[in-house]
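For the sake of transparency, this paper describes our internal protein records without simplification. An entry from our holdings is shown next, in its original layout:
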Amino acid sequence: MRITTQHSKITLALIGLTVLTACGGSREEPKPRPAAAEVECMARAMYFESNRSSPNGMLAVGSVVMNRVHSDSFPNTVCGVVGQRNQFAPGVMTKPMNKGAGLARQMAVAVLSGERHPKVSRAKFFHAAWYRANYNNMHYVVTAGGNAFYEKRRPEQVTNRRPFPEE
């Protein structure tokens, strides 16, 4: 009987230690707030490249921007990617943002804090959903916010040759 009581006390102590460690011992450091300039550049890309009221489309555009930032083929900053010549909508860095700018900024902070569109995956490219391109290396992954998102692949590795219907 004494062993059972002793065993119970040890078990309870181990459970308590596990709970304490899980609650306080492995606390994550708070993520730093994204720089204001990066938020503005990301918001501009999202605002001008997606339907301005589509959080899903904005998230997809932001995911592509971040995929480019992490690629050796593009500039390594958000503003560098968004400001690249002939890559995004004309005037993306200079036109005024009006209705929907608040949502774009909110979504920009989310993406810069690590949120990604679950279907964009490694895609670094997109075009208007209505546009039909005749290239054989475009592997479509999702259509969102009025855009069709795709990865460039070797033709024999392309399995989705047409844009999906809008989510």
Remarks:
- The domain at 36-157 is CATH 1.10.10.2520 (Arc Repressor Mutant, subunit A).
- The helical segments are 2-25, 36-49, 55-69, 78-82, 101-112.
- The two ends are 63 Å apart (CA to CA).
- The chain has one domain: 36-157.
